[in-house]
Automatic annotation (TrEMBL):
Activator of cell division through the inhibition of FtsZ GTPase activity, therefore promoting FtsZ assembly into bundles of protofilaments necessary for the formation of the division Z ring. It is recruited early at mid-cell but it is not essential for cell division. Homodimer. Interacts with FtsZ. This is Cell division protein ZapA. It holds the Pfam family ZapA. PANTHER family: CELL DIVISION PROTEIN ZAPA (PTHR34981:SF1). One of its GO terms (cellular component) is cytosol.
Amino acid sequence: MSNTEKTRTTVDIYGTQYVILGTENQSHVRQVASLVDKKMREIGSRNPLLDVNKLAVLTAVNAVNDYIKMKEQLERLQSELQKEKD
């Protein structure tokens, strides 16, 4: 599949179906949706009074937090690798 060719993938996140249009393959989109659904259910089970909008925002905050931590770890590892090469 070329980078400009888009596919539609239907996924279920927290009981709602979404059609995702993008260049990633369907397996990747389904994996992402599954992780989002899992995180929303995890947060929702600990906070049952949250409405779905607040739950979605908390899920996004958690995901971005994880992303930033992994990015920082990657940068540290790349820096260490570079030091070993020098």
